[in-house]
Automatic annotation (TrEMBL):
Keywords per UniProt: ATP-binding, Copper, Ion transport, Membrane, Metal-binding, Nucleotide-binding, Repeat, Translocase, Transmembrane, Transmembrane helix, Transport
Gene3D superfamilies named among the record's database cross-references: 3.30.70.100, Calcium-transporting ATPase, cytoplasmic domain N (3.40.1110.10), Calcium-transporting ATPase, cytoplasmic transduction domain A (2.70.150.10), HAD superfamily/HAD-like (3.40.50.1000)
Species of provenance: Urochloa decumbens
Classification of source organism: Eukaryota, Viridiplantae, Streptophyta, Embryophyta, Tracheophyta
Location(s), subcellular: Membrane
Full protein name: P-type Cu(+) transporter
Membrane-traversing stretches: 244-265, 285-303, 315-334, 354-371, 510-529, 549-569, 868-887, 899-920
Entry EC number(s): 7.2.2.8
Pfam families, A to Z: E1-E2_ATPase, HMA, Hydrolase
Signal peptide positions on this chain: none
Gene Ontology CC entries for this record: membrane
Main location: membrane
Length: 928
């Protein structure tokens, strides 16, 4: 429902009667805050009669209201990703995030310093991706569009050939005319064209062919090898910082030697102290000349960053560095110039301070970027699962294969037929149209045994074909593939913030201004102390006066207090943890899920498909008449082959195992009748066959002997289902079908207990089966015959008692409980609804991964806490020392260049400490 005319999307003194009537009419489950002149969207749980009453209630108080299609609204909500260049610290990310969050139409915005990306959930009817980019750039940062979130694919093509203005116009119009092409953008400097298109209407090969045809073959197009702008930017940034650092060393090393080493070598000292102009020495002039390019050429990045930061009123790390190095440099220039114009003034320069500061900071940034690049290696490994090339089959008009062509796998289009040879990787999601083989899907699903594939079976891109040749028709390509969706999920998880990060956000908002103020107060305090002779002159180095000493303290404070490490403490650990989890088949949807998982002290398990396999299998057969077992199953399978019931499929699968041939032909079944929930009956060969439960037999007037009744009771006590088989109206046998418990289920429950995590089973199954399963796996607290809403209520009751609850489930009926729980864990083989509702997806469907998820989250937050100790420890200890707290008692002072090295080391140490999570190993469970 949309309401227009409201000043705010929440009660105020002008509109109380509206909200009173709404609250009396229905229950509001979601109410996003709106803004002036914008429509307000409200979601209700209503039936048709309630919808009319709500509409009337709103109109009665003078506003307009109309119902909107929820699906239409959902289609207009997109997830946009931007790569943001120029962010230096947490203060920068807070500024960008605030600007995006307050933009009209933006529902949620998250900015990560570690990935230098922003993820924005927005309504495209109100704001566009272009407007979001403009909003970011108005804050002084550069934004590059990664994806708008719209249902379309993107490809970058390199054009080889001579292109003039006329050719470009002709190319653009030709490509734009293709069905499904959304946008065409040319980059003449790189000879690159970026095309956004709908994959179900066109594809990369069609685009390449159009470019070639439109230019009569004068221009050829191919995949642009450096299409990933984010990687491109990171490599350029690494190269730029490395070059800048090396160039700074060329100038800084001589400065360091002339100021701190050569002064202790008599003959060199004499040469450096030789006067050039009045009291200005050779050494001072040399240091001035060498430090100038470091300050203004190599260090220009800090000037640009500081200028932009001050323009947007949000001082950051660049401001602190620029202030510190400029203070040291320009005071040195003043001192040297004064010496050059005086006969008796002894100058003291800090040229080594400014140049060494810049060098150490560049080294720190270089090491930091190198380390940050490793935090996202998991995504790169996932993307590497896809093969580089694919064999495309050519068909004639009659459907016969007439040839094959090896192409780049990124050129595969929907409905292409791809040939997969033994040992090769499946190049695209699709289904088999010819051939049979076994495919290793462990890298995607975690299934250790190869899965048999034949005509009609689906395959996943990136999996390995073990034996046999397969012809696969591509169904999901590019961004639609399963692999691409997993990568997207991990990327989104790395963007999502943990609640603990709010601590760093709050500090960063006021940190830089406070540091500047504290640096000024430090300088004033020491300068005043020197003027008032509050400390002995013997404490002052011979080459300094009180002003110079105070200046050095102020610069040291300003430099050492940069908050870079604080901003990296949480996101780097979350990035590594989500990547490590993904590589082990545990997809964690961001920092919030991680933080909640490490607090879990109670887990609610569903039974079917979670504690059990979820697929019934035959475990026993009891014959009541003398007959061959294979013949017995031939009759039963012939009757059940036409049924879709899971128990029927289990019987047919078991019957197949009794025959050597792979495609056994069952006897013909005539007059087939299926009674839902009871059983089937049919005429098979010369016998009348009935297969079903006890009530079905009784309703069919078939007597059940005492022996059969006793067997059924025994099977029920063992949590098995007894299926009765009758032939010619006489019971001939009972088939025991069971949903087997997952391997190591008992060990997992036992290990969770050792982690102080209580396990509870909630199932919709009967009490007898539930108790039998619970006893076998070691769960004492059991709730059976529970409806979906009762599962959610159980979770809420546990939460109200002060527990942090995780829910593990796989079905649609588990979704309410998965949403209600503090952490929802969905079994990867479960339904899409359950996976969407969960916070963590266990791709391998192994119960051991529940332990992995909790253990990984606990170890991650140990790292995060230690990161804060590192980050804050440097500042808590370093700032007082830099301010001179030890100077009165020991005469020790921290030179600014050492403070700069400490600041750089803090960021590097935080990132490296997070990177140690890459070596995480899951707990070893007894029996696994």
């Amino acid at each position: 429902m949309v309401i227009t005319g409201l000043k705010k999307a929440r009660p105020n003194k002008n509109e109380p009667e509206l909200w009173e009537q709404i609250e009396k009419t229905t229950f509001i489950i979601f109410l996003p805050s709106g803004c002036i002149h914008m429509p307000t969207f409200i979601t209700f749980l209503l039936n048709h009669e309630q919808e009319n009453r709500i509409t009337e209630a709103i109109e009665d108080v003078g506003f307009e209201a109309k119902l909107i299609d929820e699906e239409v609204m959902e289609k207009n909500i997109l997830l946009c990703r931007l790569h943001i260049k120029g962010m230096a610290c947490k203060y920068c990310t807070s500024t960008v995030e605030f600007v995006l969050q307050t933009s009209p139409g933006v529902q949620r915005a998250s900015v990560a310093l570690a990935t230098e990306e922003a993820e924005i959930r927005y309504d495209r009817r109100i704001v566009s991706a272009t407007q979001l980019i403009q909003a970011v750039e108005e804050t002084g940062f550069e934004a590059i569009l990664v994806t708008t979130g719209e249902d379309r694919s993107r490809i970058d093509l390199k054009m080889d050939g001579v292109l003039d203005k006329r050719s470009l116009m002709m190319l653009e119009s030709s490509v734009q005319a293709l069905p499904g092409v959304e946008n065409v953008k040319f980059d003449t400097e790189l000879n690159k064209v970026t095309i956004l298109y709908k994959p179900d209407q066109t594809g990369p090969r069609d685009l390449i062919e159009v470019i070639k045809s439109a230019t009569s073959g004068l221009v050829n197009a191919s995949i642009y090898l450096e299409a990933d702008g984010r990687d491109q930017h990171r490599y350029r940034e690494i190269k730029r910082y490395r070059q800048s650092f090396l160039w700074s060393l060329i100038f800084t090393i001589p400065i360091f030697l002339t100021s701190m080493v050569f002064m202790y070598i008599p003959w060199l000292k004499a040469g450096l102290e030789k006067k050039v102009f009045n009291m200005m020495s050779t050494g001072e002039l040399l240091r001035w000349i060498l430090s100038t390019p470091v300050q203004f050429v190599i260090g220009r990045k800090f000037y640009a960053g500081a200028y932009k930061a001050m323009c947007r009123g949000s001082p950051n790390m660049d401001v602190l560095i620029a202030l510190g190095t400029n203070t040291a440099y320009f005071y040195s220039v003043y001192s040297v110039l004064r010496a050059a114009t005086s006969d008796n003034y002894m100058s003291t320069d800090f040229f080594e301070t400014s140049s060494m500061l810049i060098s150490f900071i560049l080294l720190g940034k270089y090491l930091e970027i190198l380390a940050k690049g490793k935090t996202s290696e998991a995504i790169a490994k996932l993307m590497d699962l896809a093969p580089e090339t694919a064999t495309l089959l050519m068909y004639d008009h009659e459907g016969n294969v007439v040839g094959e062509n090896e192409i780049d796998s990124r050129l595969i289009q929907k409905n292409d037929v791809i040939k997969v040879v033994p040992g090769g990787k499946v190049a695209s999601d699709g289904f088999v149209i010819w051939g049979q083989s076994h495919v290793n899907e462990s890298m995607i699903t975690g299934e250790s045994r190869p899965v048999a594939k034949r005509k009609g079976d689906t395959v996943i891109g990136g999996t390995v074909n073990e034996n046999g040749v397969l012809h696969v028709r591509a169904t999901f390509v590019g961004s639609e593939s399963a692999l691409a969706q997993i990568v997207r999920l991990v990327e989104s998880a790395q963007m999502a913030k943990a609640p603990v990060q709010k601590f760093a956000d709050q500090i960063s908002r006021v940190f830089v201004p406070l540091v500047i103020l504290f640096s000024l107060l430090t300088w004033l305090a020491w300068f005043a102390a020197g003027r008032l002779h509050s400390y002995p002159n013997s404490w002052i180095p011979p080459s300094m006066d009180s002003f110079q000493l105070a200046l050095q303290f102020g610069i040291s404070v300003m430099v050492i207090a940069c908050p870079c490490a604080l901003g990296l403490a949480t996101p780097t650990a979350v990035m590594v943890a989500t990547g490590v989890g993904a590589s082990r088949g545990v997809l964690i949807k961001g920092g919030h899920a991680l933080e909640s998982a490490q607090k879990v002290d109670c887990i609610v398990f569903d039974k079917t498909g979670t504690l059990t396999i979820g697929k019934p299998v035959v475990v026993d057969t009891r014959l009541l008449k003398n007959m061959v077992l294979r013949e017995f199953y031939d009759y039963a399978a012939a009757a059940e082959i036409n049924s879709e019931h899971p128990l029927a499929k289990a019987i047919v699968e078991h019957a197949k195992k009794l025959h050597l041939e792979e495609n056994h032909i069952w006897p013909e079944a005539r007059d087939f009748i299926s009674v839902t929930g009871h059983g089937v009956m049919a005429e098979v060969s010369d016998k009348s066959v009935i297969v079903g439960n006890k009530s079905f037999m009784l309703s069919s007037y078939i007597d059940i002997p005492l022996e059969a009744s006793e067997i059924l009771i025994e099977e029920e006590e063992k949590a098995r289902t007894g299926v009765i088989v009758a032939m010619d109206r006489e019971v001939v046998g009972i088939i025991s079908v069971s949903d087997p418990i997952k391997p190591n289920a008992h060990e997992v429950i036992s290990y969770l207990k050792s982690m102080n995590v209580e396990s509870i089973m909630v199932t919709g199954d009967n009490w007898g089966t539930a108790n039998a399963i619970g006893k076998e796996v070691g769960i004492e607290k059991i709730i059976a015959e529970a409806k979906p809403e009762q599962k959610a209520e159980m979770v809420k009751e546990l939460q109200l008692s002060g527990r942090t609850v995780a829910m593990v489930g796989d079905g649609i009926n588990d979704s309410p409980a998965l949403v209600s729980a503090d952490v929802g864990l969905a079994i990867g083989a479960g339904t899409d609804v359950a996976i969407e509702a969960a916070d963590i997806v266990l791709m391998k469907s192994n119960l051991e991964d529940v332990i992995t998820a909790i253990d990984l989250s606990r170890k991650t937050f140990f790292r995060i806490r230690m990161n804060y100790v590192w980050a804050l420890g440097y500042n808590v200890i370093g700032i007082p020392i830099a301010a001179g707290v030890l100077f009165p008692s020991t005469g020790f002072r921290l030179p600014p260049w050492v403070a700069g090295a400490a600041m750089a080391a803090s960021s590097v140490s935080v990132v490296c400490w997070s990177l140690l999570l890459r070596y995480y190993k899951s707990p070893k469970i007894v029996g696994s």
